[in-house]
Amino acid sequence: MVISKFDVRDPIFHDEDAARAHMETQLWPHGPSCPRCGVLGDRITKMQGKSLRPGVYNCKDCRKPFSVTVGTVMERSHIPLTKWLLSTYFMMTAKKSMSAKNLQRLIGTSYEAAWFLFHRLREIPLHSDSGPLGGVNKVVEADETYIGGKESNKHKSKRQSGRQGGKGKAAVFSLIERDGYVRSFHVAKVDSQILKSIIRKHADSASFFMTDDSRLYPKIGEGFAGHGTVNHSAEEYVKLGGFLHTNTIEGFFALVKRGVYGQFHSVSEAHLARYLAEFDFRHNARHMTDLDRANALLRGAKGKRLMYRQPDQAATA
Ligand SMILES: [Zn+2]
Do the beta carbons of residue 13 and residue 81 sit within 8 Å? Predict the structure, then answer.
């Protein structure tokens, strides 16, 4: 089943068979494949019988049955697939995210189930890196911010103190390629050693590196093709004909904060990495239609189940 646009009246959101068929189309574009060995085609048989639930296949090599949710964040969930799909589409269409409370009302589950659904979905993009950001003739902006505690109402003086101190708040560091992807990290603290190891791994040194004038960055910046800085405290936001700025990353942080304070009021440090993964994913898929973005998230659900079991850790590398 292929739908062409997001419409809550579509059967995939109301009928379990249609929902499963949609998942199969997204996760198995070349037909059912075994989640254990990856085999396709005539090594796979569809299992049929009155006692069997539909959507069960068997791998002749592994001799084990499977369905489309095996090996995904949805495996062994008692929540109907139709609700998983609705949750995915709601999350992917809400620019500033959506609270579990809101989802609960929309899909008619308990608060706990809604919370669980969203957090599992946030697991999907959490660990999927794909090479460093930037490259030749590309600009990578870097910045850190603090999330949590009381919203500072965005007054400039408060923002400044937040930037430098961040007491009682969680530290977030992001790298963003201008006109490209973003990658965010919940860091244990903001110091040059931690930031350096992230930057070395996630930003291509052939890029032009762009930061504020924090003392954290000059040394790290030497490793890049170039390093530009702006001085926020001097109201110096954009210079050199509009080239030297960190507006891209500032805008991203503003969106994350509007989401966190507007939807969630606060975010526990234990879950921050997952919220960041959600915002990163929406930013990175911003040029897609709502439907394509949601389907892209669904396709990423494959092979993510084991990762969910790992303990939360603030990124240090
Ligand atoms: Zn197999």
Answer: no
> Long-range pairs for 21-28 at CB < 8 Å and ≥24 separation?
22/85, 23/68, 23/69, 23/81, 23/85, 23/298, 24/55, 24/68, 25/1, 26/295, 26/298, 26/299, 27/68, 27/72, 27/298, 27/299, 27/301, 27/302, 28/68
pTM to 2 decimals?
Answer: 0.85
Rounded distance from Cα 63 to ligand 1 centre (Å)? 7
Distance of CA 60 from the midpoint of ligand 1 (Å): 7
Cα–Cα distances (Å) from 42 to 60, 71, 176, 300, in that order, read 9, 21, 44, 25
Distances (CA, A) of 86 to 7, 8, 118, 300, 312: 10, 8, 11, 16, 26
Kindly give the distance from the C-alpha atom of residue 81 to the centroid of ligand 1, in angstroms, as a whole number: 23
Q: Is 238's pLDDT higher than 70? A: no
Q: Which domains does the chain have, with CATH numbers?
A: 139-284 (3.30.420.10)
Tens digits of per-residue pLDDT, 266-285?
777 888 999 999 999 999 99
**How far does residue 28's CA lie from ligand 1's centre (Å)?**
14
Averaged pLDDT, 75-93: 94
Question: How far does the centroid of ligand 1 lie from the alpha carbon of residue 86, in Å?
Answer: 30
Q: How far is the CA of 44 from the centre of ligand 1 (A)?
A: 8
Residues around ion ligand 1, judged by CB within 5 A, are 34, 36-37, 59, 61-62
Category of 178 on φ-ψ map: left (φ > 0), alpha (ψ -120 to 50) or beta: beta
What are the beta bridge partners of residue 65? 58
Supply the DSSP string of 71-125, one letter for each residue.
TBTTTT--S-HHHHHHHHHHHHH-TT---HHHHHHHHT--HHHHHHHHHHHHHHH
